[in-house]
Amino acid sequence: MNGYNPGTMGRGRTMAELPRLVAVETTSRCNAKCVFCPNSALRRDRHAMAGELFEKIVEECGEFPLRAIEPFLQGEPFCDPEIVPRLEHIRRRLPRARLRLYTNGYAMGPKHVDALAGLGVDHLYVSLNTLDEGKYRQAMGLELGRTLANLDYLTDPRRRGRVARRITFRMTRLGDTSLAEQDRFLAYCRARGVRPFIVGLFNYKGDVCSTLPVPRYGCEHVHRLDILATGRVALCCMDQDGEYGWGDAREQSVLDLFRHPTARRYREMHTSGRRRSIEPCGACNNFWPGFRGMGIARALRTGLEYGAYRLACRPIGRKAPAGPSGETLAELRGRCEAAVGTAERTRAHAQDRG
Ligand code: SF4
Q1: CB under 8 Å to 125, separation ≥6 — which residues?
Q2: Contact (CB, 8 A) for 150 and 108
Q3: What atom in ligand 1 is closest to the CA of residue 275?
Q4: The ligand 1 atom nearest the CA atom of 244
Q5: Residue 45 C-alpha to ligand 1 middle, in angstroms?
Q6: 1, 192, 205, 243 — which has fewest CB within 10 A?
Q7: What is the pTM of this model?
Q8: Of all atoms in ligand 1, which is nearest to the CA of residue 219?
């Protein structure tokens, strides 16, 4: 087993030194232009991951007990013409790892759905966001009718359970997402036998506008490994261009990348309660808590802080829009574009200063 020697580490250390999840960006291309996702503002080339590199990564994931793998990062998996053979390859080589797939569903037509049936996907997430045709077009740049036709095919009771053990439809709640819209979404999911998940907008470490505050507690994303289509490692899924990443899967093994000194430094800052002192985490409002590698006292404190955050901000679930009419998509897009510009100027300035 490459680099994996549990005998030299205590149980806690072993868990902390293995990624809980490896995310592999099989493609950085996307067919949507979501207002809440930085993909449309990517500063890197859009392309699929080379087959050889993909197979190297999967092979290395088999050298330690990996809990979960997600062949997805910033792109849309079904924009990758090789996605089905890649999923089959993962299932063959990593039979014990949970396989989770995220898609907007637009290109996941009947042919793809049939190919997924029986393949062994554990959890399929579909980013649907709204059932309002106009808002869908404005928010995602796609036509809702085609997505809904695909989802009808997917959720047909004759095939739903064969495509994935669990299916979740996700709604990202924007400033003007009304309660009626959320209720319609919930009813739609119920009628199709899938799990609904409504969540507030993340700010992608300051690159996307979101009103949710930055938590104090450590983030769970430092316990995963995110590999971009080029092979370069990103800090996490919020680091869309990999500007805070380290190392390259073309040259280093998956475990060496996870145990890289930079990765360890991020984990250490988060597990010791110093998230706010490290860039870019001090500006990121991802609210999922990380408990790994913490002592009991710190873990308890993190749990309490997370509970307080959930109560105060209600980032998950049905929630009334922020203002009397909420923020419109056009306003949000304008603010996001301005924020991306400001974030880029700040980083360029920091680089100029060396
Ligand atoms: S706090 Fe944000 S930027 Fe930092 S690791 Fe977590 S998700 Fe990534």
Answers
A1: 100, 101, 102, 103, 167, 168, 169, 170, 197
A2: yes
A3: 1
A4: 3
A5: 23
A6: 1
A7: 0.89
A8: 6
Please calculate the CA angle 134-153-94 and round it to the nearest 5 degrees: 110
Q: Which residues line ligand 1 (CB under 6 A)?
A: 205, 219, 221-222, 235-236, 238, 280-281, 284, 286
CA of 343 to the centre of ligand 1 (A): 16
Which residues are paired to 68 by β-bridges? Answer: 98
Share of the chain above pLDDT 90, in %: 79
One-letter identity of residue 193? G
Distances (CA, A) of 37 to 136, 206, 209, 245, 339: 14, 12, 10, 19, 13
Q: What are phi and psi of 54, to 5 degrees?
A: -55, -45
Q: How far is CA 216 from CA 209, 213, 286, in A?
A: 19, 9, 11
| Distance (Å) from CA 286 to ligand 1 centroid | 6
Which residues partner with 23 through β-bridges?
70, 226
- Check if the beta carbon of residue 130 is closer than 8 Å to that of residue 181: yes
User: Per-residue pLDDT tens for 161-205?
Assistant: 999 999 999 999 988 899 999 999 999 999 999 999 999 999 988
How many Cβ atoms from other residues are within 10 Å of residue 1's Cβ? 10
CA 87 to ligand 1 center in whole angstroms = 27
Q: Which two tokens stand for residue 225?
A: 């490994």
Q: How far apart are CA 264 and CA 258, in angstroms?
A: 8
